[in-house]
Known about the structure:
By secondary structure, this protein is an alpha/beta fold. 34% of the residues lie in helices and 16% in strands. The protein is globular, with a radius of gyration of 20 Å.
Amino acid sequence: MEKFTTLTALAAPLDRTNVDTDQIIPKQFLKRIERSGYGDFLFFEWRATADGTPIADFVLNDPRYQGAQILIAGKNFGCGSSREHAAWALSDFGFRVVIAPTFADIFFSNAGKNGIVLCPLAEDKVNVLLDRARNLSAYKVTVSLENQTVTDSLGFKASFEIDPFRKYCLLNGLDDIGLTLRHADKLDAYEKQHNQAYWLQPK
């Protein structure tokens, strides 16, 4: 998992509330066994018609937001089912940060485990960011995980809360596997001792 410290990037506004995980990654795309490739299907039913034709007025089809790494959305983002594929799709598309007033609990956990920083801000603060992202050309936001702040070049500044353990993992690029591998030497020693004690003794 890539480390996250500070990111300054183009922001895309998704001014919708209660964005659920089936909207983030529709169920028909959950058959893949890899974590990669889901970005092509992010918000698919909003991005394209049934025959795959892009819907011109959907924000992620707007050329102004191509390459955005920060998504600004309404409250209760990531509600619905607990599918981790939603975090995979956002990450694979290129989003490293989602800013919203509130997030669903399970999605919050899944996002952090996949290197996505979630920034819960007061709704009035989010509305300022949404308005600027909609109306200003090439609007960029800076997210500092170290300082737990969201800022822009126009004087906006807000702080967000994050669990200290999740912050530590994101700063150090540690997913669940990475956390386990920090103890690889102890695990190897245990396996060696276990094998000698139970499997390698003569009968």
